[in-house]
């Protein structure tokens, strides 16, 4: 049996340098979600959850800047986490009932949960209507309040804590 040197047989035109000059999977920059992208994701998830629940026939009115403010606070709460905002699972509930839940980055380990609590708006424009018109409008319309609460729940404890 003869032992052939592998390097002389298979070293055809390759140098000892790295063949790929781009970043490796460990060095590649990971995109961090922006405030606008997270607000759009919140809107998509809420629309999907509304369609899959008993709210499908109701009209849900959300204030214009609510999702942008919620996404800004979500990103701020996630800053100190090991995986940042990519490690967050966002849970949205309306009046105490869970409406939507999603991971910002499904390929990243979940390190914390962000709970977004929305409420019905009791001081809306329908309070100015006569009672017979309230019965017509309120049955199919849910108005979300511009105020919300948001809290972070850590899913791990570091050695320093």
From TrEMBL:
<dbReference type="InterPro" id="IPR012918">
    <property type="entry name" value="RTP801-like"/>
</dbReference>
<keyword id="KW-0963">Cytoplasm</keyword>
<dbReference type="InterPro" id="IPR038281">
    <property type="entry name" value="RTP801-like_C_sf"/>
</dbReference>
<dbReference type="Pfam" id="PF07809">
    <property type="entry name" value="RTP801_C"/>
</dbReference>
<dbReference type="GO" id="GO:0005737">
    <property type="term" value="C:cytoplasm"/>
</dbReference>
<dbReference type="GO" id="GO:0009968">
    <property type="term" value="P:negative regulation of signal transduction"/>
</dbReference>
<dbReference type="GO" id="GO:0032006">
    <property type="term" value="P:regulation of TOR signaling"/>
</dbReference>
<dbReference type="GO" id="GO:0006915">
    <property type="term" value="P:apoptotic process"/>
</dbReference>
<comment type="similarity">
    <text>Belongs to the DDIT4 family.</text>
</comment>
<protein>
    <recommendedName>
        <fullName>Protein charybde</fullName>
    </recommendedName>
</protein>
